[in-house]
């Protein structure tokens, strides 16, 4: 197999899924892609080295890979970005006894198994880019046998096929099924739970709109068989199956049946930015070929007819915020991916992100992903301006409305709550980028700047649209804004009176808290490890009193008001004392004591709430 090069992004002109029970039940690790609150399979939040690959037209060196992992661990893991997925441009010169590729590059010191373990130790997962229909020619020539058989790997290849770049499995030859499923099992055994399968259009039809003929056209039955084998192996191991470069023939008939996620646009490309996100061949569809719509906005809009809770997830490809011209454009790309239920696939790097990191850290918008939310445009016709208005409901009934402007000048966008959302009377409205309540109203209209958006959370009946009053029940990691460390039970104790402190996030149950809404805007926080509640020592109402854990009771010292503050953070106020959850002395060290103190708005009194498995 040759090195995957920049041609990857230039390979084209410049029925309903129910919940997949196999995906959810086969392996507890699959909860990485499942909403704790709703049980909905949701899109991943992750980092990919695509930006490095496309700029350098080469593999990513291992030291750069390491640096980006450390950057993600420090800056985005606590916000739910819990996967690092390799991409192409490497080489397959290293393979195991079964002919399966072991590492990204011959120049790497470590293999995939090492990095999978490395990431798991840090509370993240390795995602894999590969196609199990690819056969390593060097392994075949070396006499490798299909795993568990005496069938030569070479018998799976048709050397007269004249395919560009790849040696494809001959799907009807003996040993083909064992090889394909064995490849996926190989990844599963090293703890991988995400598989990104590329170049599916080349396998199906052997045609590329730029390069022309790249291989033979195969019968529909063969393509379906290949997808079915992948799905069966992925389901058996709790692996999320992402299908890339699919032709989506017959309105995505086969991909909808066998994939968890599909790409719906051309590659982000070397230039990336607003042009490829919004403008590239805007409104033009190429029927039944990759990619039917070239830009992400068109793709998300048209294919929204297939998406929904526990349905097919749409993938708008990688995001490079540093290639967009301004924050309006950057907000739009993140907002559309989240409101459409798609992934946020970070490809900015530690040394290219600039001042844009905060855009990936909007907890009020990331709550959509945590909830398993999937919105829809008012029409799936990308040429109709109504497609720039998206709506949908959170699991608790709150409405999310996205007002987008794809045009080059300011445009008025409006939403009528009765005629377009289906409820009468006033509703409270909150701006999720400004983190501000806009008041109570029956409709909303605003001028949206060029390339910009407004994302609103709307609560009917006049209730609060502040997400602090509508956090869904579930398990949370609670992270201090000042220190970046998480709320933790000292020494993972199971006893009453054990003190609460802060510690770097390591993913243990002592750092996870079950949030339960008990009414009147108040909650209990129960430690997953000990099953004891967050409590104030001796029900004190004084400043600088320790927070500990205790058996669940009915006292107000175990009840907490959680309210949103500026920037997507929360204050956590004890109902009994009226004082805030506080890291003593604004410590940033592991073991810093957590106490209660009069709320002053300091960063050591502000917290993020991130849903976790």
Mean pLDDT: 91
Question: Which CATH architecture of the largest domain is right?
Answer: Alpha-Beta Barrel
Distance separating the two termini: 38 Å
Number of helices: 14
Number of domains: 3
CATH superfamily of the largest domain: Aldolase class I
CATH topology of the largest domain: TIM Barrel
Radius of gyration: 25 Å
Strand order of the largest sheet: 9-8-7-4-3-2-1-10
What's the count of strands?
A: 30
Task: Summarize it.
The protein is of the alpha+beta class. The chain is 21% helix and 23% strand.
Explain this structure.
The chain has 613 residues and is an alpha+beta fold. It has three domains: 6-374, Aldolase class I (TIM Barrel, Alpha-Beta Barrel); 385-467, Immunoglobulin-like; 473-611, Trefoil (Trefoil (Acidic Fibroblast Growth Factor, subunit A)), CATH 2.80.10.50. The chain is 21% helix and 23% strand. Strands 9-8-7-4-3-2-1-10 form an eight-stranded parallel beta sheet. Strand 24 (533-536) and strand 25 form a beta hairpin. Helix 6 packs parallel to helix 8. The longest helix is centred in the middle third of the chain and has 17 residues, at 220-236. It starts with 20 loop residues before the first helix and ends with a strand. The model is unreliable at 1-30 (pLDDT under 50).
